[in-house]
Amino acid sequence: MSLKRTIPLASTLLLAAALLSPPAATAGTPTAALAVPDISLANVQAHLGDLQTIATNNGGNRAHGRPGYLASVNHLRAKLDAAGYTTSVQQFTSSGATGYNLIADWPGGDPNDVLMLGGHLDSVSAGPGINDNGTGSAGLLEVALTVSRQALAPQKHIRFGWWGAEELGLVGSTYYVNQLPTAEKSRIKAYLNFDMIGSPNPGYFVYSASGQPTGSLALQQTLQAAFTVPTELTSVGGRSDHAAFARAGIPVGGLFTGAEVVKTAAQAQKWGGSSGVAFDRCYHRSCDTLTNVDATALDRNSDAIAYALWTLAGTGGGTPGPRFENATDFAIPDLGTVESPIAVSGVTGNAPSALAVGVDITHTYRGDLVIDLVAPDGTAFRVKNSSGDSGDDLVTTYTVNASGEVANGTWKLRVRDAASADVGRVNGWSLQF
Ligand code: DPN
Ligand code: ZN
Ligand code: CA
After folding, report:
1. CA 296, CA 145: separation in Å to the nearest integer?
2. CB-CB contact of 380 with 374 (8 Å)
3. 303 CB less than 6 Å from ligand 1?
4. Is beta strand 97-106 parallel, antiparallel or unpaired with respect to 394-400?
5. Which of 28, 80, 95, 235 is 20 to 30 A from 204 via CA?
6. Spacing, Cα 106 to ligand 2 middle (Å)
7. Distance 339 CA to ligand 3 centre (A)
8. Kind plus residue range of the DSSP H or E element containing 193
9. Cα-only R_g, the chain
């Protein structure tokens, strides 16, 4: 965040520019609680940076029984407490060392209808475990913080879990499920697992419901629908923390961007990246550091966690329509205008009256920015003015009444920098129909 200097000349230019720009049709209103939010990639990356720092300061890892693990638990717990979660740390013993699960409950919702989301927080001892599983841990944390920021009041009760000692054989999650009284187990109606969601040569894998408890197919399908890129199903079997939940008869699902297995030519064709190379060459190695993460995969998967939560938890919005995004970076030059397109197809009829426009912009002063959503026929909907706004980055969701616009065609996010000295970039944006 930077303090804005008042420059009369800039204001004059701004007024002139405003008079020259095309008329805006309808004003958007920030953040409808029901729209699936865009999860801030920058925030997820900041959490990963924190985990890297914790490892660096604690002998290079965050492994079970080592100080970097408990430091990771305490770090997340403080953030969750501050956001209004009810947290608890559950202790267990494995290989002669104390392990810890971090459980965070979002107050409210039906206590007999619990949606649980989790992933392991421990690394192997060889390295800091940033992709495995800093990524799942950080994505879950940012989604949890977004639930809090939006003061979400879903019909279901939401619980998050960060598991210890996964790398020693799924120890923490197994302990958690086994110690739950039968009645408590039966209240958990679904468990979603996020283990490795930012692999550097990523694939987009959704846990297959095949062979999993009844009810898992709906979870699989919801997670598939969360992506605008093609996904593949994968049989993760007993390789991660959903396994104990599945054994208890709880429907499970999850996301994964690949570990030691090599990407095929067909997979490189549809997802990009390198064929003949492992999805994660640094899997379980010391090089699983902050640089061992693909930002696009991390962004898409973090958004998918939110999509699943908002869709499954009964946030009151009904079943969302299709979602489109453009995750390409566009620089916003000083006093310049940029347009990022999204081509929409396959949607019947007009856009909805509450078209959710997710915006993720990094900027040194967002008060410079005037933003329009431009419909395929050129109609501009002003979602943000430069006046009355200050602060730096802009990560939010606008709701636009676009019911007079045909849905199919190329929509654009037009971002105009109306004052000198501050610059930034569009990291990505999305349209949720
Ligand atoms: N369970 C992961 C690990 O921590 O090593 C690897 C993995 C995750 C493998 C998901 C397959 C599927
Ligand atoms: Zn691992
Ligand atoms: Ca500027």
Report:
1. 20
2. yes
3. no
4. unpaired
5. 80
6. 28
7. 16
8. strand 188-194
9. 22
